[in-house]
Amino acid sequence: MKVDILATLLTNASRDYEVDLMTHVDPNQASRVSAGVPSSASIALKNGWLPLDSGGWQINCIGSVHGDGRSYLVAVSDRRQ
Hints:
single chain, 1 helix, mainly beta, 3 strands
């Protein structure tokens, strides 16, 4: 899998490292972006959680899904109390 977005900001080695991290996520942390995706698809994702002063969490997830001749870039932002 190759990520070309903003390709001039990172070296090839940096991009390869990031994609490797995003494609080897602990299954217990793979959510949102990968929900409902067939096992034959290639998925890269990054989840982030920020505790809110009011309690709860700001949850941000980004990722890409490639499979069945289609490619998607996905971003999800969620606030949980």
